[in-house]
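Box 3.1 A note on notation
Throughout this textbook, protein chains are presented in two layers. The first layer is the amino acid sequence; the second is a token string describing backbone geometry. Keep the layers aligned when reading.
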Amino acid sequence: MDFDIQPNLLMREMPNSISLPRRFREEFGVLVGQFLQLQGSEELVLEVTIALDPQQETAYISPENFKKIKNQDITFKLLDVTLGCDPEFFIVWGWRNISAATYLPFQGEIGSDGALGELRPMYGQHEDQVIANLRKLIPKIPRQLRRSPWARSLPATGDKFTYEAHSFNFGTAAGFHVHLGIPPEILNTRKDFNRAAMSHIVQGLDWYVSVPLIPLEVNHQRRLGSNYGKPGDYRPSNMTLEYRTPGGFYLRSPKLARGLLGLSLAITEAVVSRMKVASKEFTTLHKLSAADLQEILPIPHPEKIRGTLVDGNVKVAESQLPSIYNEVQHLPNYQKHKGAIEEFFRAVETREQPGPDLLHNWKE
């Protein structure tokens, strides 16, 4: 893959993207929404988007990203599975939540999703890359706040607030959404015959990722009393599976976030690679039986998964952790994610529950 790449100021609004003209996309067989790895002096993983204008003859990225690869021999690679996230956080003043929309734009790496703040780090191929990107963003949060003109009764600057990670706080639920870039053959759930494969991945994430998260939560109201983040909560886009069941609590520390992301990526990589082999490069995906899918990734009956995730007794989830951990250890890609996963399960075993203050917990 070989094409010219240039900086463009308009790409500052899409810092995690690369704009490709249609002829480039057609020539290289790249679809909008897929992810390219750009390897220069630094590694970037960027989502492919459409051309900025009809006359565009080159690829565009943000000036900041261009500086990271300038004057280097750049290699490009289309990735099977990528990892991203957009965890939500609370802006707290005294004993009340402050609407993030009052201070933050809707777009950008640090933005608002209505009342909640949202972090949108650059995608990566490994949880450590995404965690490193979160480490860069979180200390910047206070400096990004700009008070709306109509909110003069509120503090003018971001240093008056605390920034907190909760799954539920003052009546509002927050999520830690995990974005998994997976092949379009699986994501295209508009075709009925692909829905079994997609459902198996999501149920696998529910069992192997969300069940181990339960024992650490300090507030279970989002899990038990909200329609947001129920078992199997996901959104498919062109190239991304957005897994929405985990709550915002897991943004509390690098260790918890790394464990959540590492488990999510380990499960998804293993399933996608096995599906690819079992379906002959996804050409016979629709022929995979329930038994085939169980061989690809064994999971309990959906009712058991759901029952475990919505049970008010935390010990129900705790009783499943030894078998879940044992199964995860036998994944073919376990060594790649071993550090994050083992550290996370140790935190669960010792009931490590850090406080909610993001700036404190994420400082170097």
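DSSP finds 14 helices and 16 strands in the chain. The mean pLDDT is 91.
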